[in-house]
Amino acid sequence: MSDLHARHRSVLPDWLALYYDNPLEITHGEGRHVWDADGNKYLDFFGGILTTMTAHALPEVTKAVNEQAGRIVHSSTLYLNRPMVELAERIAHVSGIPDARVFFTTSGTEANDTALLLATTYRRSNTVLAMRNSYHGRSFSAVGITGNRGWSPTSLSPLQTLYVHGGVRTRGPFADLDDAEFIDACVEDLKDLLGHTRPPAALIAEPIQGVGGFTSPPDGLYAAFRDVLNASGILWIADEVQTGWGRTGEHFWGWQAHGQSGPPDIVTFAKGIGNGMSIGGVIARSEIMNCLDANSISTFGGTQITMAAGLANLGYLLEHDLQGNARRVGGLLIERLRAVAAQDPGVREVRGRGLMIGVELTRPGTGVADPDRASAVLEAARADGLLLGKGGGHNTSALRIAPPLSLTVAEAEDGAAILENALRTTQ
């Protein structure tokens, strides 16, 4: 393992982060568990950054990939592609967007790039509204609209970005207000902001901020924003790269918690739909998707092998009601973790919904982020056989919990017990 780590450091960028003091190599997985190169077994509560959505080595997906690989792996979008059309039909149907069109990419970053291209072209504006504490990808344009200093290495951008209040309920100038007052204050702030600029192309927002530490506003905020945006024709882009496909339990899409004014104009997706295969994409109303007047193709977006995986994975998720499982098991897990947190003065908040849960750590009695303890908890949990994630706009002090949506009640209890012990031993 140390040899592989040394080789990694000698040929890959210094900024390519690795978890753990002694990084692990994951060699195989099954269900909700993975194994490392030394044969150690772990309960996986992070799923390759929310990407292994249904289960590791899911037989239905493995079979679909193997069968497709035996026929043809790739041909590009220059040719008709049956699996791509079939998956696009299914996604358009479940999107909630009328007359929806779907464009496939290879990642969430590329999906958000495409959404920004569509919105700025359709609206003829290069100004974009984004949320503070947000994250939308690694590309130049996506970094340019990211409202999280820890993930934005440059201030240069092809876009003019204006940042809006509301993505974090329990911090900032409106944190002490009740939910209704919080929404009203954020709406008034948005109105004031729009009064000082030419109309932007779009607001892009994660219904639950992923890298930001699984933070979210009160339900209904984006519906209230939408009323303001509609008055000026400003589009709403819902970044569902982490929240889509039923992970939040209560809804199939995260935007549906704010859906009183109808679906977004554009939805971006990625991660879980491929269960590890590289799929991203954009869903938009036809007049928005078709607004480009130049040639465009995608060499790898929608390639046959990834589309076969996506079809099998989405079918499995719907047929086995994994959204319902996320709601039931996630609800039990959140309550269990809140009981643990009540005994730990360093846990500021347990938040989230479904199987998308954040545990924010601070120095007791201060509200100051405690990234050192977050790292220590990750190490302690790993030692006992549990893999977690980290995040947060305040120095990466939030633990991120996002296991495959097929997690069982027994596995949830096992993971909670390990996390409880990790928290206790790091106080």
Q: Share of helix among residues?
A: 25-40%
Order of helices and strands: HEEEHHHEHEHEHEHEEEHHHEEHEEEH
The strand order across the widest sheet is 4-10-9-8-7-5-6
Categorize the overall geometry: globular
Question: Unreliable runs, pLDDT <50, ≥5 residues?
Answer: none
> Which structural category do the helix and sheet elements fall into?
alpha/beta
Rounded mean pLDDT is 95
The number of distinct β-strands equals 15
Rg from Cα: 21 Å
N/C terminus separation: 30 Å
Largest pleated sheet: 7 strands, mixed
Q: How much strand content do the residues show? A: 15-25%
Number of H- or I-type helical stretches: 13
Q: Quaternary status of these chains?
A: single chain
Description:
The structure is a single chain. The protein is α/β, with parallel strands linked by helices and 427 residues long. It has 13 helices and 15 strands. The strands form 3 sheets. Strands 4-10-9-8-7-5-6 form a 7-stranded mixed beta sheet, with helices on both faces. Strands 1-2-3-13 form a 4-stranded mixed beta sheet. Strand 14 and strand 15 form a beta hairpin. Helix 3 packs antiparallel against helix 10, helix 4 packs parallel to helix 10 and helix 12 crosses helix 13. The radius of gyration is 21 Å and the shape is globular. The model has no long low-confidence stretch (mean pLDDT 95).
